[in-house]
Amino acid sequence: MKVQQFLSRKELLKRLHEEPFRRITLSFYRYVIIEDVEKLREEFFKKWKALNIFGRIYLAREGINAQLNIPEMNLEKYKEQLYADKRFANVPFRIAIEDNGKSFYKLTIKVRSKLVADGLSDDAFDVTNVGNHLSAEEWNNEMNKAIVVDMRNFYESEIGHFENAICPEASSFRQELLMVKDMLNGKEKEKIVLYCTGGIRCEKASAYLKHHGFKDVNQLYGGIIEYARQVKFKGLESKFKGKNFVFDERMGERITEDIISKCDQCKISCDTHYNCANDGCHLLFIQCESCKNKLEGCCSEECRSILHLPIEEQKKIQRETAKNVPASIFSSRKRVKANRPAID
Prior knowledge:
Blueprint: H1 9-18, E1 23-31, H2 37-50, E2 54-60, E3 63-71, H3 75-83, E4 94-95, E5 107-111, E6 132-134, H4 136-142, E7 147-150, H5 154-157, E8 160-162, H6 173-183, E9 191-195, H7 200-211, E10 216-220, H8 223-234, E11 240-244, E12 253-254, E13 273-275, E14 284-286, H9 289-295, H10 301-307, H11 311-323, H12 327-330
Parallel strand pairs: 2-5, 6-10, 7-9, 9-10
Antiparallel strand pairs: 1-3, 1-4, 2-3, 8-11, 11-12, 13-14
């Protein structure tokens, strides 16, 4: 029997950085009914593995949400394969703005109950009854006449957001849906414009608001990623300031030179996210280079001291900590700041 060997993250990253070809990072989503999700997962994994594709893909009965990097020479073949399935024909791709092709180092395709967890039953509202889609130019024209709402989590908006946007202190989409509805209570007849990273959260949020009686709901088509591309291509003024948080190894794409956040430790201007180097913590936080060097990539002196313990001692501390923390916190790569709720 052949034994499958698994490479470590360090080894996979080394291989990625040694590749002699260019990769292109892109994302896409589509709400469409998939009857046999597990079967599609196996088909995708086999085909995409053969094309040397890396990424994080979520499949659900309600559709697909994908973030990938693809060897440039395989991009057209990938498109042909994907578009051959009528469920995904001509689905628009969002091409990364800042991209060195090192966004993902392995292929992961997961089956979920929902593309974006909303905590609601499948028949709670019609996810296909969405708001109006706005281009970048239309968005710039309309946002000054409307209520602008950021449908991302707080750790995303803290490093970059649109001017005068409402940025809820939410740590999950399911939490934010309820928060936004409550915050907009009484404004059902006003123009609402929503935005997120690539559009998928706004697609669902716009349908949710329409279901609850909001009459003029609009969303930024393609999200911040497509907005930045159109701004650059058409020479428009960017109303978005700072960085766009992305869910891969980069953790951010710079849209403008504005730095609107601070290092969580020394408070100087900074907008670079890191996960704490102590694997038992792995907190997501903002850190400048000086503090990173001083604390060796950790979020605190306590975590730095743990980092220097023997591996078995570190694992023991992790096990003891895990007993007192909900498992959902440890199931995620991303972390939130101290004294704030964990994300889903």
